[in-house]
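Chapter review. Work through the record for Choline transporter-like protein before attempting the end-of-chapter questions.
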Amino acid sequence: SRHCTDVICCVIFIVVILGYIALGIVACVHGDPRKVVYPTDSYGQFCGQKDTLNENKTILFYFNILKCASPAVLINLQCPTTQLCVSKCPDRFATYIDVQASYRYKPDNWNYFKQFCKPGFNNPRKSVAQVLRDEDCPSMIIPSRPFLKRCFPDFSTKNGVLTVANQTTFKDGRGKTRNVTDLREAANGINIVLDARSVGMKIFEDYASSWYWILIGLFIAMIVSLLFLVLLRFTAGVLFWIFIFGVIGIIGYGIWHCYWEYNHLKGIPGSDLTVYDIGFQTDFRVYLQLRQTWLAFMIILCVVEVIIILMLIFLRNRIRIAIALLKEGSRAIGYIMSTLFYPVVTFILIAICISYWAVTAVFLATSGEPVYKVMANQTLCKYANLSCDPETFNTTNVTKFCPGAQCTFAFYGGESLYHKYIFIFQLANVFVFLWLVNFAIALGQCTLAGAFASYYWAFRKPADIPLWPLFSSFGRAIRYHTGSLAFGALILAIVQLIRVILEYLDHKLKGTQNSFTRFLLCCLKCCFWCLEKFLKFINRNAYIMIAIYGKNFCTSAKEAFFLLMRNVVRVAVLDKVTDFLLFLGKILVAGGVGVLAFFFFTQRIPVFAKEAPTLNYYWVPLLVSPSSNRPDAAGRHFSSFFLSYQDRTRMVCEDLERNDGSTAKPYFMSASLHRILGKKELSPKKA
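Structure tokens for Choline transporter-like protein:
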């Protein structure tokens, strides 16, 4: 008999969800994603927006980029200079003084230059001083290239010297000859971003040309995992020893291959250089031409090989217990096949949460009306950075006290109550997102635990197993224990939010010289990381007890904790050794598919050499193949869920405490399992 648990938390959870939906609706009403997609000029108009005057002008141009000392200023649209939408970036050096002086006999130069002036300006007779004061045209243009839909100087390095279009100097249009090193601060940051963009574009191209092969690899990994589960039920012992030696063999092959590459590069010019000598290179294939790289790979693989062999030697007597548990878990999977596909439900729920959070965050970030500020060339202008209205600005006295001042677009914001609390809403968006994701994971853990409990606590298997154990368990979790699952997810979400805030503070204070502050942040981050891991462990075991007994979260967490403490040695043996063996199985599945993908994408399989796409980086598809260690890789995701049976360890401990094998209290575990555990069955098991 069950009853609803943690009702108050359930009500709060439902109210929060309704509030979250309301927040998304309000954000959609006030937000405008075009502010993210399109850059905005000094008049608050979008560049490249359809059905506007700027439809064919997709790039933002800065009149005087020297005023923008940092790339972050450019991206945040807060550079104190006029910004216009243009169809293309300048491709040459030119100054307004030179163009105006020669417009009579070189009209082409004027026609080219005026496209970077304010729309409608076509008066080359206007004095240079007035043009520069009113910022009708830029004082100079320099060769640029578009990046993030903005014109950035076309920086390059020639013989170690920073240049722009192979020139080291340029005229600033105000009678001075400037060196391109005046832009060094901006150039350094921009070049790093441009290099990253180059790598990012190549990676995107690789994904675009190999995505269907990646899906095939993930499908193969899933099929191999399913075959692994089927074989595990009948040949767990033999299969695992094959897996163990298979992993050792794969790592051994990796060691041999690294040694072969290391020896092959001997005597080749440049191969004896170190990674430090060549520095950071965007073409990572350069590192594979160094002997040091292959030597480092070989040492790492040797260390891993030795560790695995030593662990196998010391844990050989415990492997029998793990194999028995795996057989029991595989037998349960055989009776409840629907549990194989439930992780898809969890994946869909998490995907919905991520999508809703991302959309809400974008709409919140783009909420607000255009805010215009007074941009003055004079540093002592008392009206500088004050809000203004571009429609009435020319009728004010600002231009009299601050010659050359303009009312230009600064950012999106507002003075209403909603706009004042945008940051709080963003924080709430992150918090509820973490809460919902943790709830989806908790629901999956409790559902699977309940399904496996239906199998384990059935005295006559499979006769006593319910008809639809997975659906029954899901229904019980939703109907009776939504509050308990939400309570556990809430605790975890609070800790995760604190970790997010600490990471944000660490990022903001990264440049500080205060050693004590950095030390304190490091300690706090470490402590909350440990706390999160501990809470995840406690929550998972609490959900198992909730699925079995139907008690509230706190009671279940307490009983689970003391159950584990009373059986700490047994849990360590059954749980961790089993996890280790399953980890070896996952390595073989992931490593096998990864090696197959490596040979395929490097065109080393003759049969498929013509089918393999030509890639910039052959390791790109391997990042999302099952060989990746990332938890969000699809193949790894399915393999991890399909090969996870930690619930039975807790049930075995509970069975051993509650029962003694007598007629009145018979064991519910299989006869082979309690024999391996050293427990005798005092009464024969019913068929």
